[in-house]
Amino acid sequence: MKTQHSPTQSTLSAPLTDEVKAALAITQRGCDELLIEAEFIQKLARSAATGIPLRIKLGLDPTAPDIHLGHTVVLNKMRQLQDLGHTVIFLIGDFTSLIGDPSGRNVTRPPLTREQIEANAKTYFEQASLVLDRAKTEIRFNSEWSMALGADGMIKLASRYTLARMLERDDFTQRFQGNTPISIHELLYPLMQGYDSVALKADLELGGTDQKFNLLVGRELQKQYGQDPQCILTMPLLEGLDGVEKMSKSKGNYIGIQEKPADMFGKLMSLSDDLMWRYYELLSFRSLAEIEGFQGEASAGRNPRDFKVLLAQEIVTRFHSATAAERALEEFNHRARGGVPDDIPALTLNGAPLAIGALLKQAGLAPSTTEAMRNIEQGGVRIDGAVVSDKALKVEAGTYVVQVGKRRFARVTVLA
């Protein structure tokens, strides 16, 4: 965690109380960077002294309909700050989605249509409410002030930032040096996100580490509009189930927060032992001392699986219920003993004898016949408990329990 050096008590105009110190510790837990720490301490101290809550902003563009655990890293932090009594603003970027965030992109992001944005936005806050306190959350859409700017307002806003500063951004620099096109509209995105902070008079803005440039633009624009500049809190990007790429639906390495309890539990149990501790750090609400104790027990020889179960139960309980978490554990153990879950999809396919690759694809157990063949090569396909090794297998008419991997099952009836 990288932070600026804390000021001494004498540099503060408001008292640095134990309450402020505790709030700072909660804010910094698990974060990557807090800028500028000295300013944020002063904001906390002033808030505590006056009773006026800080305005804390998180903006998300509704680029997909589902929120996954990676999104909840920053949402969890918002909830912690909300529980401290501050005003949290959940900003839905319905205007900025029309532009497309260039962060971390080596090509231009295709803009979404208004219809796609509206459909995705409907589900965003409903899912975010599983983490945030709905009654205490201010929900805003940035089209509210962005549309009102008009052409003249957009030109005036663009005049407040230079192209040279914009090209200091890593992804723009790499694309410029690599002769990869940068569309003019992409340069507008950081300005529009920054203007959101002006419109909302934000004291603190949260985002992933890939958002740092955009957050700094907001800070600069606030200065130019005569506001106290916001502080910035960046949170690490959560690795997906592969432990390599950041969690992303497009990469297929994600855990959706509305997935079935058994699927969520099973995916969490599939984490590597090392990656499990990363998930504890960024997702668990347990104290750091308790997590360190778990790590000590694992180092002393206790089976890491025990702690993976605790993590999976905590996450499933958060998004479903304690009862659902217990049932998911029972089902997981049942599967581990070679059993078949009670609730599996049943479907009927025609064309017996049916090629195994076509069966797996049509049953929704593999996205393609190529992937189906790969699963067979890896020994991950079973029919009625028996491993399938013959990629040329033709399945005769009948009803079968078909399994791919540890978690995908279907009861398939094949008709002639």
Topology (elements, then pairings):
Elements: E1 2-3, H1 18-28, E2 33-35, H2 37-50, E3 55-60, H3 69-83, E4 87-92, H4 96-99, H5 114-128, E5 137-141, H6 143-158, H7 163-166, H8 170-177, H9 184-200, E6 204-208, H10 212-224, E7 231-235, H11 261-269, H12 273-283, H13 288-299, H14 304-319, H15 322-336, E8 346-350, E9 354-355, H16 356-362, H17 369-377, E10 381-383, E11 386-387, E12 394-395, E13 398-404, E14 408-415
Parallel strand pairs: 1-2, 3-4, 3-6, 4-5, 6-7, 8-14
Antiparallel strand pairs: 2-7, 9-12, 10-11, 10-13, 13-14
Question: How would you portray this structure in words?
Answer:
This protein folds into 3 domains: 53-235, HUPs (Rossmann fold, 3-Layer(aba) Sandwich); 261-336, Tyrosyl-Transfer RNA Synthetase; 346-415, Roll (Structural Genomics Hypothetical 15.5 Kd Protein In mrcA-pckA Intergenic Region, Chain A). By secondary structure, the chain is an alpha/beta fold. A 7-stranded mixed beta sheet has the order 1-2-7-6-3-4-5, with helices on both faces. Helix 14 (304-319) crosses helix 15. The protein is built from 17 helices and 14 strands. Its EC number is 6.1.1.1.
Short description:
By secondary structure, the protein is α/β, with parallel strands linked by helices. It is built from 17 helices and 14 strands. The chain has a seven-stranded mixed sheet with strand order 1-2-7-6-3-4-5, sandwiched between helices.
